[in-house]
Each structure stands twice: as structure tokens, then as C-alpha cells.
Amino acid sequence: MMSDYTPSLTVDLDKIRQNTRYLTGLARERVGAGVFGVTKALSGSPEVARVMLEGGCCGLADSRFENLRKIRVAMTDWPEFQALPLMLLRIPAPSQVRQVVETADISLNSEWKTLQLLSQAAGELRRIHQIVLMVDLGDLREGIWIDTGNPSNLISLVRNTLTLPNIKLIGIGTNLACYGGVIPDRAIMERLLKLAFQIEQVCDYPLEMISGGNSSAVPMLLDGSMPKGINSFRLGESILLGKNVIDRSDLPGTRQDAMICRAEIIELQTKPSMPRGVTGQNAFGEQARYIDRGIRQRAILALGRQDVVFDGLTPLDPGHIILGASSDHLLVDVSDSRTPLRVGDRILFIPNYGALLALATSPYVAKHYVSSDDDR
Ligand SMILES: *Cc1c(COP(=O)(O)O)cnc(C)c1O
Predict the structure, then answer these.
(1) Residue 375: CB partners within 8 Å, gap ≥ 6?
(2) What's the CA-to-centroid distance between 342 and ligand 1, angstroms?
(3) Residue 353 CA: which ligand 1 atom is closest?
């Protein structure tokens, strides 16, 4: 039976809808902004995409066109949402411009060469492709680097982009707290607004989208420091996991248990906690450390590094301690388990973002979509 297949990832659609509703409401009430629901951590799952739209997202976004394509196909059965835009988050690869124009209404961009190719592909497909120019305000991932002073590099890219026949420049965006861990603040958002204003002087029409970033912007919405004018956000982790991504604390108003990972006990034995013999590197070239807790009850679960980033898992039972993992085995100290365990029982975990990404991507992990009322 499918529901018995392990390991598995259980996705509670009601909780995701609830989180989405809260966050889209927050963005709307605080600064009148719309939210694109980001589906990449669940490989563009149409089930999740749909509840994000039901929760009030004004569009969907993913880093891969393959995921957007899946959503696009599913959307043909959702007439009420069909007109909403799909946005590609990762800067398009020059070799994939045709697929990008076919699947995405909007893409985020920073390269002149790629913009030219996108325009060409859009012409061949007889479409107008919308683009948002990304600016790097310090985090050092994607975007045109903006030094203090005159943003001449951005302005000349804008001028060039305006000459492309099949591209429409609709906005400007930035991404923070990704590579550099730069925390969004009012000064950074005001720089973004000023750049938007400078672009509007050149293009002579108002920009539709001033995209103030990912989940790391949510704390600014909560504390009221987000300036008006920032009118779009791209939210993934805060919706899916209910986390403040600046410090990984719980976001008030959201659920943290929409995603549950379950794995089955395949061995349950009592063993010492220190390896016996001379120790060198483990199977992954790491010099592991061992804590001597004496003789312990240890479970081996059918879940491994092929499926998950194991240190991103938090056991639901606080008595369970994750000891380590190899490709296919997860070792858990269950001596202090709140309930007695047997071989064949499941142990439950809440994944962090990295663990969720891997679980969703692993073909060995069964995905179950449930409603809170369903029996888990
Ligand atoms: C992944 C991604 C997001 C969403 O980030 P979260 O922290 O999950 O909200 C937003 N923008 C871009 C460009 C991304 O790549």
C-alpha cells in the first residue's frame, strides 16, 4: 500500500494554505504588496502550487523551467487561476531561452546576452516575454552590482533592454540573505526604490513590479519597517516551513509542521555509543566525533544521504537523538524515546529547508499530500 511506503514526506496542504493566507494578508495589509508563491523546494508540486494560489498568491515562481512546465500543465484544469503569471527565479541559461519563454511569463535577469536571446526566442514564439532586472544590493548572488553613486551600469542595461522588440521590462528586484546572509533593512529597500525611480525616468512608464525579495523580507513586514512602494515578494520557506529565515525562529501566525518526514526502523539493537577499534575516516571522508553515552538503544532507519540532508532533520520526539547517516542508513539513539519502539515502526521528523529540498527531490521518498483532518 502506497501509504505504507517509506521513507515518506507528508505535505499538509491545509497548513500550507493557512500559512500562505497569513503571509499574503500581511504583505497586502502592511505595504499593499502581492506575493509569488515559490514552489522549488517541492520540485514544482502542482498540489502545493494550487494551495498557494488558494491562499492568495498573485502568481507562482520556481527556479527551474521544468517545474514551471509541470505547474503550467496542471493550471489548465484551474480556470480560476489560469490568468496568473508564472515567474522563473533563476537567471535563464542562454541555452534554455526557448523553454523559458515557452513556460514562464516573467523571468529574472541580469545578463545582456541572455536578454537578447530571450527577445529572439520570444519573437520566434510570437510572444512578449516580461523581465525583471535583478540588482545586487550586497548579498553577492545574482544581479547587477550597484555601487554607491551613479548606477550607470544598470541604466545602460535598461536603455539596451528597451530596444529589444519582444521583451517588456516590468520591474526590478533584489535577493538577500542567500549567499552573503545580508539581512534586509529599510536602507537597502530604499536603495531599491530609488533605483526603480531612476529606471522609470529612463523608460518613461511606471514599473509594475518592485520585488523586495524572498522570505528574509518577512520580518520587515512584521516589524513595520518595510517601506511602501515595495510591491512584490517571492516567498517559499516562510510559507512551507513557517520560519523566520533570518534566525530560523518560528514565524508568529504560521504553522511549522506542514512537512513531516517518516522513516522506518529496520534494526533496533542495544550497542555501545563508542566505536570499537582504531577509528579513521567514515564512509564520507569525515573524521566523525562520538559522544560516550554508555550502552544505548539504537535504531537504524531506512533513510540516508541519498534522500535527505540528515542534520537538517529534527525528531518530533525530543527523546530521539540523530547520531549520523550513511548513504542509506540513518542512526538514531532512541533510548529516551517517549514511546516504546519496535522494528517496523516509523520515526517522524520535521525537515529544515535543505532537508526538505532533498526529500522532495529523492525518487526514493514517497510524497503524501494530506489535509489536516486526514489521518496521518
Ligand atoms: C528561492 C528563491 C526565492 C524564495 O526564497 P525563500 O527564502 O524560500 O522565500 C526568492 N527569490 C529567488 C530569486 C529565489 O531563488
Answers:
(1) none
(2) 40
(3) 8
**Cα gap 66→100, rounded to integer Å:** 9
Instruction: Please tell me which residue in 40, 70, 243, 367 is annotated as part of the active site.
Output: 40
Collapse the DSSP code of 376 into the 3-class scheme (helix H, G, I; strand E, B; otherwise coil) and give the result: coil
pTM of the model: 0.95
Query: Following CA atoms 54, 55, 58, 64 in sequence, which dihedral angle do they give, to the nearest 10 degrees?
Result: -80
- CA 165, CA 70: separation in Å to the nearest integer? 28
Read off the C-alpha cell for 242. 513557517
145, 154 Cβ separation under 8 angstroms: no
Q: Which three cell numbers stand for residue 137?
A: 544590493
Render each residue's pLDDT in the chain as its tens digit; 376 residues. 445 668 999 999 999 999 999 999 999 999 999 999 999 999 999 999 999 999 999 999 999 999 999 999 999 999 999 999 999 999 999 999 999 999 999 999 999 999 999 999 999 999 999 999 999 999 999 999 998 778 999 999 999 999 999 999 999 999 999 999 999 999 999 999 999 999 999 999 999 999 999 999 999 999 999 999 999 999 999 999 999 999 999 999 999 999 999 999 999 999 999 998 888 888 888 888 889 999 999 999 999 999 999 999 999 999 999 999 999 999 999 999 999 999 999 999 999 999 999 999 999 999 999 998 654 4
Q: Tell me the CA–centroid distance for residue 237 and ligand 1, in Å.
A: 8
Instruction: Measure 41 CA to ligand 1 centroid, in angstroms.
Output: 10
CA distances to 83, 267, 270, 289, 319 from 296, in Å: 57, 13, 5, 17, 12
d(C-alpha 242, C-alpha 19), whole Å: 7
Residue 31 phi, psi dihedral angles, 5° rounding: -135, 10
3-state secondary structure of 232: strand
Residues ≥6 apart with Cβ < 8 Å to 276: none
